[in-house]
Design goal:
Elements (H helix, E strand, L loop, with lengths): L5 E2 L4 E2 L1 H13 L4 H6 L3 H17 L7 E5 L7 H5 L5 E6 L2 H7 L8 E5 L15 E6 L8 H7 L9 E9 L14 H5 L6 E10 L4 E9 L6 H5 L2
Parallel strand pairs: 3-4, 3-6, 4-5, 6-7
Antiparallel strand pairs: 1-2, 7-9, 8-9
Length: 229
């Protein structure tokens, strides 16, 4: 593979990457339209905005572990982020999607996990002290507040827990169970222990996508915890 598979400035993919995707669709013809949609115009619009914010934030570095919730095939995010971070964990509940995704890239620091992040035993968010949680599919799953509260994020030992979340107002699309009418409604779904750094509204052909970037903060310590130090 070429070193630069994705050109986020021009929102294009390299010729060799295109050939790899063609081979993939030949192998999984029933998923061909889904795979091409993952590198389509609307996906590039939303993912480019997210990547531009992340790459200019100073958060992305070789000590950062990234967890992508609802990762799908990761066709845009992974080739840009994998060379720049310590590791990427791609989480999706669909077994075949996870299987297909493992056949796209050969990055040593990327792993694919079929699991439900709303499972109380899910632990990928808490296994590192410097983590970025990306979820560009919030409209496809339940409450962010419930998810973060259930996973008890951040854990006491975690120094930095960043988040980059996207949802939209595209009601009526199959699988969209948690759309938002506006960005303020989306912000209301965040848990109280967050610091919002950036918010964007991204216009697409089908509607508006909402983007929130920030970090989760540690809850205040109780007097007992302070006395135990």
């Amino acid at each position: 593979m070429e070193k630069q598979l994705i050109d986020i400035k021009n929102q294009t993919i390299s010729l060799s990457y295109m050939h790899d995707l063609i081979k993939l669709t030949d192998r999984y013809p029933h998923r061909a339209s889904d795979i091409w949609d993952s590198v389509g115009k609307n996906q590039f619009i939303s993912k480019t905005e997210l990547l531009n914010v992340l790459l200019s934030s100073g958060v992305i570095n070789k000590d950062l572990d990234v967890t992508i919730v609802g990762s799908w095939y990761g066709t845009i995010l992974i080739p840009v982020l994998a060379p720049l971070v310590k590791s990427i964990s791609c989480i999706d509940i669909d077994e075949e999607t996870t299987q297909i995704a493992t056949n796209i890239f050969d990055f040593d620091n990327v792993r694919y996990i079929k699991e439900n992040p709303f499972d109380k035993n899910f632990g990928c968010f808490r296994n590192t002290d410097n983590v970025l949680i990306i979820n560009t599919s919030c409209e496809h799953m339940g409450s962010l507040r419930d998810l973060i509260d259930m996973q008890r994020i951040p854990a006491p030992n975690q120094k930095n827990v960043w988040f980059a979340f996207q949802s939209n107002n595209m009601f009526g699309i199959e699988g969209h169970i948690n759309c938002k009418h506006g960005i303020d409604e989306f912000k209301e779904d965040l848990p109280w222990n967050h610091e919002l750094i950036s918010e964007r509204e991204i216009e697409e052909e089908r509607g508006t996508r909402f983007f929130l970037f920030g970090r989760f903060t540690q809850p205040p310590r109780t007097p007992r915890e302070e006395n135990n130090e």
